[in-house]
Amino acid sequence: MAGGDAVPPARPAWWRTSTGITVLGFALVAAFYVLREHYAHALGLLPYLIILACPLLHLFGHGRHGRNGNHRQSAGAEGDVARSDKAGLG
Questions:
Q1: How far apart (Å, rounded) are the C-alpha atoms in residues 24 and 51?
Q2: What is the secondary structure of 41-85 as a DSSP string?
Q3: 8-64 residue pLDDT tens
Q4: In contact, 51 and 45? CB cutoff 8 Å
Q5: By the 8 A CB rule, do 90 and 80 touch?
Q6: Cα separation, 48 vs 43, whole angstroms
Q7: Where are the domains of the chain?
Q8: What is the pTM of this model?
């Protein structure tokens, strides 16, 4: 076994480290107490959050399809467009 063939171990994700688990635990406990104390306020905002989610999902939920230039029209479709332009339809 050659000395240069060793692959260094991959670093674990941040949330899998002991610090990440501790921070996430404190965040969950804090979120529980904040929501518990302000339950009425949180439920009062729920309809607005659903309405706000609609445009955000529209903007960020489509996965950027069609923006990378890989979606090209077929030759038949381009010919159809050219024919409709000549006929005065487009």
A1: 28
A2: HHHHHHHHHHHHHHHHHHHHSSTTTT-SS-----HHHHHHHHHHH
A3: 888 888 878 999 999 999 999 999 999 899 888 888 888 898 999 888 888 887 766
A4: no
A5: no
A6: 10
A7: 21-59
A8: 0.42
Q: What's the first-to-final CA gap in the chain, in angstroms? A: 69
Q: And the tokens for 62?
A: 């489509």
Whose structure tokens read 């903007």?
Answer: 59
- Provide CB contacts within 8 A for 14, sequence distance 6+: 20
24, two tokens:
């996430």
Helix or strand (DSSP H, E) at 23: helix 18-37
Instruction: Quickly tell me which residue has 């659903």 as its tokens.
Output: 50
Residue type, 32: F
